[in-house]
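<given_protein>
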Amino acid sequence: RGRPSTDRALPLTPAPTLHKIHSPHILFPMSAFAICSEDEVVFLVHDFYASVRKDELLGPVFEAHVDDWDEHLAKLVDFWSSALRGSARYRGSPMVAHAALPGLNPGLFHRWLELFRKTTARLDNAPMRARAEALAARIAESLWYGYQMQRDPDGVPASLHGVEPRRASRA
């Protein structure tokens, strides 16, 4: 009495596929990332960086540091596919790459976010749009913190929040 019967068969449902996200110790079920397709990720990345390359503020920064756009876009698709879909394809260190760039300032990060939001506004997939925008804001903040820490390890990094976006400049 009170014990479960062993006569009944348990339903056979497949276990969710688990993927490593940002850490080898954190696993998420693949179903958590079913909000977008790979084609949608490719569209987002290519559309966004096409606008970045045309932008009078960001374009020169990227053109000065990206030698092979096809290779760079493929790496960015892997990054965003990992972040949005859990594909775990991205291999790299964005903090190291961005911290090495000269002359970054909050205005450049604000402009990057502004163009990103303009791109995501064109997406029909609302859950993807919301997740991508939230991730982009966290990424921008994290890269800005890391950039400041690289230049002044003893200083206190300033947040992007509260910094007026109109202060963008190339230097």
